Every structure is written in structure tokens, then in C-alpha cells.
Amino acid sequence: MKKAEILYEDNHLIAINKPAGFLVQGDRTGDEPILDVLKRYIKVTYNKPGDVFLAPNHRLDRPVSGVLLFSKTSKALGRVNQLFQQDKVKKQYLALVEGVPEPLEGRLTHYIAKNRKKNISFITKQGKPDAKKCVLSYKVTKVINRKCLVEVSPKTGRSHQIRVQLSSLGTPIIGDLKYKAQQNMEDRSIALHCRSLEFVHPVKKERIHIQAPVPSLQQWKIYLD
Q1: pTM of the model
Q2: Where in the sequence is the signal peptide annotated (predicted)?
Q3: Residue 153: burial class (beta carbons within 10 Å; 0-12, 13-18, 19+)
């Protein structure tokens, strides 16, 4: 693990800037997940005997980049997970989307279910099997040639939530062909980046703000210059 990829680290937590294309945890592809890479980094760097305890506090889809937080102890894991469940972690994402949502700023509430065989989520009605409430706020910050940069603050953390909800406005995330995008990203990622997490440290009780630089792709640079 390159030092530049580590955004924050202490005895309780470690946060990295996850590159697009990497798994958080193992799946049937057999590709090495970030979790295993980080465990190895901790074991070697701190000369830890035996198994290293490390667990993710949230998930980022494989094609998504940005801040990814892990707990180094079971105590920290329980406390931080509780912060996420109680909506006490402020999450900000950046997305590049095709089209311009109307209105330019708003709050979206949907019920989403997941087809696990196809690994795709879809909007459904309240009360339907597996339907989960999803809420996010968004704000368009820059428009160029009918594409735009959007700041997104999810209030819930459902599978593919931001991807589905933005697509429901007719503005899919660039590169997200699964959810009706027409344009690819240069590196085959999708243009969704977890920009920052902010929360009260579970042990130190200090307010922590962790921010990740966006990928160095021209498609991002156009909107951020």
C-alpha cells in the first residue's frame, strides 16, 4: 500500500483513497481485495504477529473511487458502524452525469430493491419484497455541454443507491453503462467519487474530516479547474 493512498491512520482507524477497479472485499472473481492488501500492509509495517483485525465500515462499488474507512479494532468497528446507522457520518460524493437534472438542487427519496443474480438495483414501491428506503440530497455545481458535476450527500447507504437515484432523473453517471449511461470513462471506471467523510472519532471524540483527491483523469479535470 503506497503511503500516498493512505488518507488517515491511527491505532483505531485507517482510511484510504480507493482507486476505481478494486474490490473492497473478496468475491467470486477471486481478485485480491483492498481489505487483504491493507491487512498485509499493517502486518508488515507494524510487525504484527498472527491475524490482523481489520473491517470496512462502509462499501464502495468496484468502479467507484474515494474515501474508504476501515476499523482496526472490534470496539472501533462497533462504534463507527453505529455512527453510520444513526446518520452521524457526513458523506459527500462527486459525480459527473450525462444531462442536467431538474431541478438543479433537490432531495430524492425512493424505495430500492436488488436483483442479486444480475447485481443490479432498481426502484420499486414501498412495501414490496426487499424494498429499502433511500434518501439523498444533490446539487449541480457546474454544467458543460449538457453534462454536469453534481455534489451528492446520501442519507442512507444502500447498494448502488446513488447510481440508481441519479439515473432515475434521466442523468446517469458517466461510465455507468449498467444504469443507462452512453459514455465511457477513460479508465472504464464510473464517474462517482467519495470525496469526503466527516464524523466524531469513536475513541478520541475529536471531529475528523477525511478528504480524497479525485482521479487524475481529464474528464474530471474539466469540471474541477
Answers
A1: 0.95
A2: none
A3: middle
- The confidence score (pLDDT) of residue 3 equals 54
List the one residue out of 50, 49, 67 whose CA is nearest residue 58: 67
Q: Letter for the amino acid at 39? A: K
Query: How far lies 108's CA from each of 105, 167, 217, in Å?
Result: 10, 12, 29
Residue 216, C-alpha cell as written in the block: 487524475
Specify the number of domains making up the chain: 1
Give how far Cα 210 sits from Cα of 11, 89, 136, 176, Å: 16, 11, 20, 26
- Enumerate the active-site residues: 61
* Residue the block writes with cell 479525485: 214
The predicted pLDDT at position 31 comes to 86
- pLDDT, position 85: 94
pLDDT under 50: residue ranges of the chain:
none
pLDDT at position 129 is: 86
Domain that holds residue 210: 3-224
Q: CATH number of the domain that 26 lies in?
A: 3.30.2350.10
| Secondary structure class of 42 (helix, strand, coil) | helix
